[in-house]
Design brief:
The complex is a heterodimer of chains A (119) and B (239). Chain A is an alpha+beta fold and 119 residues long. Chain A is built from 6 helices and 3 strands, in the order H-H-E-H-H-E-E-H-H. Chain B has a domain of 69 residues. Classes of the chains: A alpha+beta (119), B alpha/beta (239).
Chain lengths: 119, 239
Amino acid sequence: MAILQKKTLDGNVETLILVILQEGQSYGYEIIQTLNDRAAGVLKMGEGTAYPVLHRLEERELIISRWTKAQNGRKRKYYRLTPKGRRTLAQNVQQWEALVQLMQNLLGSESVGLSGVGK
Amino acid sequence: MSEMLESYLDRVMVYANRSDEEAADLRNELQDHLLKKIDDLQAEGLSESDAIYQAINKHGHPRIIGYGLRKRFPLIDIRSHGTARGVIAIGPKAVGIFAFGGTAIGVFACGGFAIGGVALGGFALAAIFAFCGIGVGTFAYGGMVLGVLATGGFASGIVAVGGFAIGLLAEGGKEFSYFNTENAPRFMKLLLGLVRSKGLYLWATIVTVPIMLALVAVTNVFTIRERRRIQNADPWLQE
């Protein structure tokens, strides 16, 4: 499977992070680990590159953060989704579903059609 | 905490250029990430020094992370590398409402290559008002101009006035035009008449050239200061 290029990813990392935070509050390291685990072989993100995205999401009030003490005694910043973030995520998911539908219509069924394209 | 880790975080913070309070918050967050990563790598069997090296390496280049963590669209954004974006952006590549740089894109753009609402530069493109050696725009004035209203030694545009003029309405020593002054649309006649009668071409040049030179000088001063700030913070940052 091909690794997604940066230009394909642009603007979509935010949605990926919102999806992860929809499942519950989390912190930077955990979010990146989850992303890399679930997208193994498709997505390869520099670990630090998620922080600018997290801070942008916070500026847009799609997520909020709070500092708590982790089990090892270190301070840790947790993020969670806001109601505005949930609405934005729902809209983004709808957009993605529409795009996937369009691609399937144009390229054929997922497995047969897509694998034959470009050959 | 290791010196290497401290140094890495210092470098990120130099580029992030945040207030003390914000920087402390950011630094603590990144530090927690890196320490957790180091713990995990050590648990996998790596030595402490190898774990620190790998954690930093996987985290990303400090300049990229630092610039990413800058405030978006601040009032003034100055960068020595990459692209500055903001209300007033000064840098090698500046994008903003007022943008000054080698390549400036904005409502008011000034630089070697400028694209914007009002663009001043050696080469200005796609501007509403362009003043330069070569201008392409709605209103362009210079040695060789192409635009909606173009005037110069070599002019090409909807209204073109020059020694050699090509346009919908062209006036000059040699003319290639769709309209002449008699059958041109009324608004073009008015526009051309206004520009001629008020001597706007000359005054626009007289006024804008010194402004352009001053702005280029200011740009350079700010860019050099930013480079020095970064260099003083950590001499081996100039990759």
